[in-house]
Structure to design on (692 residues):
């Protein structure tokens, strides 16, 4: 069934299609519609799930940890400060090997207060061990909920689905949705091997010595790497059943390209149009859309970028002093190829500022002009007036 | 159950890692005898995180989920919801936290669970300081006590937080205090809690010889003296109605204090003030009991 819904509701409908057992969440702008819709679904019986209405995001994450440990399929959603408050329990969910799915609406972190989009909330959770998918459209959001549960429950690690505040969360698009029966064709009921039950008493997560902790981390890393193949297979299976697929990355007009633009999230849609325009002018430009951030698809990135003349990364986030986080990851991925490919890192759109075709053209013009980046990171569109307005 | 009023089955095994004379182990042993095998323990950071034993061992014959310090109330809520969605509404979910995890860092999640009236038993075993980390003050540490963060010259001055009153303000169906010196009473209260739907909070007084600088063999005696001196009255709050155990003859608090190194610096003036506080607290409980419940009862 095709309906017109905003990105937040695409998450809610996705959770319904995944037939989740337990939802726990705390409201934060711009996430609220996700949980409002799920509350309605639970209240009406449209979704047979328990909704635990907690007093904080920390408790939301802890509650889904408890539910998942008891063998239930569990979902939560948050944004920005809420995700940061969850941070400790994100680590816990990974260490406890619980396949929870979390929707995060990318929102800038305070202070100062901002409700608009950027990626520093989710990307700063890089080393928690959550798998991370970045979405470009509402259909992709809906579909990714099912894909995320499939991957999570296969490798027993939690997944975060990331979408841009407002550009996706509050933007209505046509989405093909379906209910739990149709969803079960792809995603069977969750059947964990070990879970909390008096029939088989076990202690989960008790004290370890240096003799055993190390290997448990080794296994998380191994299963995180395994998630690359699992995600690809899940995507292929999804396509067979529903006719849609996204890959773990997407190449757009990369054939014969000298320069590849690397994007994530909704900037990708704008970048597609810019790439078309440059191609029309005969320029050899292509686009790499990053969908998976963790596990980082290192081999795919090397395959797409490894033989180009230039790589241009747009980051809607900042790792202070070292540049955009996607750019850092791309640099790290390419380094051991010993190709010395110039990688241009551009910061744009932080705090929800628009990344228009003009902004992307400005970025591409800079990269076009230079053989090698003269700066480690370029900030696009910095306003002198705004800089002088505040003392710090 | 045989000829004894207490179940003979042991759900806690020898070989655990507690200190000698640990009150918290007695509390767990009795609590599980009351709740039985169909129990899942949610265990935030506390002494029991260690007592349970290192991976791959455990000293309990029921499942334990170890979790972060401040999450007993929230994780227990999730476990209960998960069990119910799996069709198990019988198993008791027992949140088992220390005083730090209850009075301090876990208070928010506990308040949330109580406000939602989650169907869990929340037990706070109270040894009156952060004992697992090496005796630092908590908001459950009594006035006059020495801890490593309330050292000589700066001993605890503030009163112990009145956790029962905080929980009572949530309007949950069952609240009780219990002591390892009164196992029959403790077991009866856990059994009663098991039969009630909604949030049950049981506050168990659990002496800590290591932190209190007391002899390990005095644990039960100290727990009894705390009740007898009315420092830790045995009571229940059912649907807002206080019921105080008044059958235990009162003893002076001085013997209780004199058997513990942590109170050795208390002055005569401080002891007299403590005696006045004890009397006032007892009177306030009597008023609450006689009022027939200061809070509206449970509506759901």
């Amino acid at each position: 069934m095709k309906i017109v819904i905003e990105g937040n509701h695409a998450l809610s409908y996705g959770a319904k299609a995944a037939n989740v057992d337990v939802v726990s969440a705390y409201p934060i702008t711009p996430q609220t519609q996700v949980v409002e819709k799920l509350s309605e679904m639970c209240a009406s019986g449209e979704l047979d799930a328990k909704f635990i209405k907690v007093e904080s995001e920390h408790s939301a994450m802890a509650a889904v940890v408890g539910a998942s440990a008891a063998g239930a399929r569990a979902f939560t959603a948050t944004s920005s400060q809420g995700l940061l408050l969850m941070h400790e329990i994100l680590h816990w969910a990974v260490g406890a090997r619980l396949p929870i799915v979390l929707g995060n609406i990318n929102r800038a972190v305070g202070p100062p207060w901002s409700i608009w989009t950027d990626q520093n909330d989710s990307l700063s959770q890089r080393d928690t061990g959550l798998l991370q998918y970045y979405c470009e459209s509402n259909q992709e959001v809906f579909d990714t909920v099912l894909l995320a549960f499939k991957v999570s429950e296969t490798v027993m690690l939690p997944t975060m689905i990331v979408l841009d505040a407002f550009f996706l969360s509050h933007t209505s698009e046509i989405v093909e949705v379906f209910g739990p029966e149709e969803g079960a064709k792809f995603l069977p009921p969750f059947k964990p091997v070990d879970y909390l039950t008096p029939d088989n008493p076990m202690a989960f997560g008790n004290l370890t010595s240096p003799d055993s902790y190390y290997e448990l981390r080794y296994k998380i890393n191994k299963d995180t790497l395994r998630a690359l193949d699992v995600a690809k297979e899940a995507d292929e299976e999804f396509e067979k059943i529903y006719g849609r697929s996204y890959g773990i990355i997407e190449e757009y007009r990369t054939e014969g390209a000298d320069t590849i633009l690397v994007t994530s999230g909704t900037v990708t849609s704008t970048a597609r149009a810019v790439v078309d325009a440059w191609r029309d002018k005969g320029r050899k430009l292509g686009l790499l859309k990053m969908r998976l951030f963790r596990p980082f698809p290192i081999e795919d990135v090397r395959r797409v970028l490894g033989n180009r003349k230039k790589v241009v990364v747009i980051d809607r986030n900042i790792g202070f002093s070292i540049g955009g986080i996607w750019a850092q990851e791309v640099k790290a991925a390419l380094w051991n190829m010993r190709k010395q490919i110039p990688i241009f890192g551009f910061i744009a759109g932080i705090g929800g500022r628009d990344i228009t075709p003009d902004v992307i053209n400005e970025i591409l013009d800079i990269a076009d002009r230079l053989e090698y980046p003269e700066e480690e990171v370029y900030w696009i569109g910095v306003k002198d007036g705004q800089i002088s307005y505040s003392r710090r | 159950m045989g000829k004894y009023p207490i179940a003979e089955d042991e759900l806690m095994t020898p070989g655990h890692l507690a200190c000698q004379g640990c009150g918290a182990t007695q509390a767990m042993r009795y609590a599980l005898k009351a709740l039985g095998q169909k129990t899942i323990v949610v265990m935030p950071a506390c002494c029991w995180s260690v007592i349970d034993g290192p991976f791959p061992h455990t000293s309990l014959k029921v499942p334990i989920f170890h979790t972060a310090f401040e999450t007993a109330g929230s994780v227990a809520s999730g476990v209960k919801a998960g069990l119910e969605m799996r069709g198990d509404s019988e198993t008791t979910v027992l949140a088992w936290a220390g005083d730090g995890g209850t009075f301090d860092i876990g208070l928010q999640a506990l308040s949330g669970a109580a406000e939602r009236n989650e169907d869990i038993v929340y037990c706070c075993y109270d040894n009156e300081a952060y004992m697992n980390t090496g005796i630092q003050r908590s908001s459950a540490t009594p006035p006059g006590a020495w801890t490593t963060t309330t050292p000589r010259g700066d001993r605890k001055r503030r009163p112990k937080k009145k956790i029962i009153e905080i929980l009572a303000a949530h309007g949950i169906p069952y609240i009780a205090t219990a002591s390892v010196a009164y196992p029959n009473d403790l077991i009866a209260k856990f059994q009663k809690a098991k039969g009630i739907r909604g949030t049950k909070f049981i506050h168990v007084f659990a002496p800590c010889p290591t932190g209190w600088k007391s002899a390990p063999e005095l644990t039960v005696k100290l727990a009894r003296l705390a009740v007898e001196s009315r420092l830790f009255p045995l009571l229940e709050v059912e649907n807002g109605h206080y019921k105080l155990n008044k059958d235990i003859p009162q003893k002076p608090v001085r013997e209780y204090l004199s058997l513990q190194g942590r109170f050795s610096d208390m002055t005569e003036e401080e002891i007299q003030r403590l005696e006045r506080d004890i009397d006032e607290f007892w009177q306030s409980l009597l008023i609450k009991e006689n009022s027939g419940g200061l809070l509206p009862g449970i509506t759901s």
In short: The mean pLDDT of chain B is 95. Chain B touches chain A through 46 residues (CB under 8 Å). Chain B has one domain: 23-290. The radius of gyration of chain B is 18 Å.
